[in-house]
Structures are given as C-alpha cells and as structure tokens.
Amino acid sequence: MSYQPKVVVIGAGIAGLSAACKLHESGQVDVCVLEASDRLGGRIHTGKVGNNPVEFGASWIHGTVGNPIFDLACDLKYLQKSDVDQQIAWINEDSRAKPKLDPSQLKQSIDDQILTEVWNVFEKLITETEDITKMKTFCQGITKDKRTIGNYITHGFQTYLDSCTSDTAMIKNIKHDLFLFLEERECNSVGCNSLNDLNLEDFGEYVYLDGSAYCPLPDGYDRITEALAAQLNSGCVHLNHEVTKIHWGTSSELNDDAEKRNYPVKLHCGNGKTFCADHVIITVSLGVLKEKHTTLFCPSLPSDKTDAIRNLGFGCVGKIFIEFEKPFWPTDEYSLHLIGNKKKNPKHESTTTICPWAHHLYSMYTTRPGSNVLQVWFQGNKSLEIEKTTPQELEKQCLAAIKEYTCLESLPPIVNVEKTQWGTNPWTRGSYTYLSKAACGSDFDTLASPLPGESSGCKEASALQLMFAGEATHRQFYGTVHGAYLTGIREAERLLNHLRN
C-alpha cells in the first residue's frame, strides 16, 4: 500500500472509539475521530450528584457471559469475574424480576400472593412474545396495526382477569394496577412510550446474554471509554467538531490542498473546519439521523436507508436524581415502588397537586451503597416534558407522587435535584433504539450496510465511503453498550478486509 487511507470516525461514543481503536491498532490507516460535544463517551456519561457518583447515561453491563464489555472491564481490572456477585449485590432488582414491595410503605394493600400471581402472568406473556415462530403464527390472524407487544399482553392479561371469577372488584383493581406498573417498567427497559409501539413479529430476534443482566461498574462506565481513548494517538479525537455536511461521491473537487490528492468524501464542521477522507464511519445516534439525515448527506441517502431510519423506533429514557439531606431508607438495596390507580377517573380527586407525568413515575431506587440519592426512571413522550421542567417543580412533583402512592409522610429535606437531557440534547435526540411496529428486523441490516457497497459495481477505490455503526445497526443487541461496541469493531474489520483485498 503506497499510502495510508484516511478514515474519519464521526462520534466518540463507544462505537466510534471501538472502531477507531481497531483501525489504529492495525497501522494500516490514518484515523481521526470527530465528536460534536465537549466530552468523550456519547450516551455513556458518569457524573456526580453532590458527592455521589451516578450514571447519567448507560447504567449496566447487560449480561456477563460472552459480553465484550464485561470481558474488557475485567481485563482492565475494573471488575473481577471471581467476585462479580459481590460487585452487583447492591443492585435492587432487574426490570424483569418480581418487584420487591414493602407493604408498610404502600397506601394500597397488596398481598404478596397476588403480586406473585400477576407477575407470573405478565412474565409468561412477555416470554411468549420472544417466540418468533409462535408470534408470526399469531399475527397471521390480525391486522398489521394490532401486531404489537402491547396488544398481545393486554389481550392475554384480560383473558386472565376474566378467568378470575371469584375475585372481588377490589382484587381485580389491584391486579390491574399491578399490570400497569409492570407495563410501565417494561416500557422503560425497552425505551418505548407504549408497548403498543413494539413490533410483535420480530421482537424475539433480540438476544439476551447469560449471566447477570444488570452488572454495574463500581468506578463508573466512563472508565471504559477513557481506556479506549487512551489507546489512540494524542490529537486523534477532536472535541467540539459537529459534522454538519457530508459530501460523498467521486467529485474531483473533493481534494486536500496539502496533499494534492482527491478524496471521495469531504466533511464540513459547524466550527468552520473541513476534513477529507477515503472512508467515514458514522456512529451518530438514530435520533440524530432521524432529525438530520435530509440535510447531513449530499447526495441524499438512498430510499431503503432512509426508510430504515424512519421505521426504527428511537426512545427517550431519562433519570431524575433526588439528593436527600440524609437517607431515610434502611438498607443500601432500597426500592420504592409507586403502585396505585394510575389511570384515574376524571372525576377522581387526587389528594395531592400531582401533574399527569408524575403518575408515570413508577419506582425510585438507591444509586450506590451509602448514597443519599434516589434515582427515578422515566421514558417515552413524557420525557421531553420532564426535561423542560425546573428542578424546583421536579422536587415538588416527586414528593407529590410519593405522598400519593405511599404512606411515607416525614422525609428528610431535599438538597438537590438533577435530571438527564437525552431527548433535548442535539447530539443524541433520545436514548436508544427499539423495534417499532413500523419496522422489521431487516431494517437494522439495511441501516448497517455501507455506501457504496463492495458489490455495487463502483470502482474499487470508491467503495465503503460511508459506513454505519452504533447500537441501532445491530440486529440482536440494539439498545445496548455491547451492541454499539461490536458494531464499531464490525465496521473497522469490514474496512480492513476491504483494504487487504
């Protein structure tokens, strides 16, 4: 090879950094990374609330068997495989486990036998949706708009309720409230606004890794991205470089004056700088692609690519962190579940001045051992509303929700409230991808396909000008850090194999 091809990676999240590290390690290309924001990590962001470390972005390693992020964390000595159970002991519960309820804290009396029964029914229905063959057979008899996870489990749960002929009206209401709680929790896990947003036919293509489903990094997820960035040459990553236009093609005008050589791709940044490249690996979020693909690429992306961008869902999952003057909970593993009549009759008079979005705050959790911070999850359409709400109003509404659904009256003063901003962040526009009812599994593959492809009939030197990575391009691991990481490796290896040939 007489020269080193120039490669620009757009985005310094986990996908961009894994791609850049793989390319740098090969020694075959000249690689640089352009990051729009002022920090590394993308949707991985460890910060502090008071003196308490918190994860504003990704919280856990999902699965500890066959997970490259877990293996990397162990190689870096951030975790040890031998004592991983102790490392995760302070995690309250995963999103599919039976909730841990303290009857003394709930206004609504819920018998554990009823909770177990409802949870078993809900878990059975969700597990059934992961059976692709069964779901495709089920979908043959219904219209496309009804082929959703929400429709399937709602129908199944109603069938269960109808079979409970000996239940009193009060017991049925409690079971329904528990169902709504579990439904809200599942929406948060997937990242959607409603389970009716989710494609039923291909939902089972998602792969859950074995081992602990919720393994935290005690010293913060940022340690992973920092370790990857440290493998790159100084000056390789350019922060505050938002790419605003990507010209791709074979125009002779796309040249680098310093090298007097033509390049098929030229990138313009919002700060006025330009970069030329032979290949570009694009790792921006699906949310950014949805918002900007029509203005970002020149010429425009082909219709199959834009259809995939439009069809796939991109949800917003956020967190509110409430720092109390001191903990009021008895143990490090504390969870406060807000279970009650969330879909109230319009004539129902709430005992507090609680706003509509606060009714969807379903659980509060401790963040770390010894912390005086509770973490509240939220997702979907209400995310943008919450992100625009002042800390003072968030404090008021969170306290109102606690008062509405629990027996807790006297709480320590709140000293600080912070929230995430993934939905309004111009460089993310949300949190992670889900398989919407408008999409199908092949949309992930379409989004991942490079332009032009190696078999497109174009000149060899012009192939793979635009390559795509990020969690939205992994068909089995979308919505995860390990999925994003693997796609960066995938595209780097695709390019290196192409160059070798």
Automatic annotation (TrEMBL):
Taxonomic superkingdom: Eukaryota
Broad class of the protein's primary localization: cytoplasm
TM stretches of this protein: none
InterPro entries for the chain: Amino_oxidase, FAD/NAD-bd_sf, Flavin_monoamine_oxidase
Any one Gene Ontology molecular-function term assigned to this protein's record: polyamine oxidase activity
Residues annotated as domain Amine oxidase: 14-496
Cofactors demanded by this protein: FAD
Keyword terms of this UniProt record: Cytoplasm, FAD, Flavoprotein, Oxidoreductase
Cellular component terms per the entry's GO annotation: cytoplasm
UniProt-annotated location(s): Cytoplasm
Similarity annotation: Belongs to the flavin monoamine oxidase family.
Name of this protein: Amine oxidase domain-containing protein
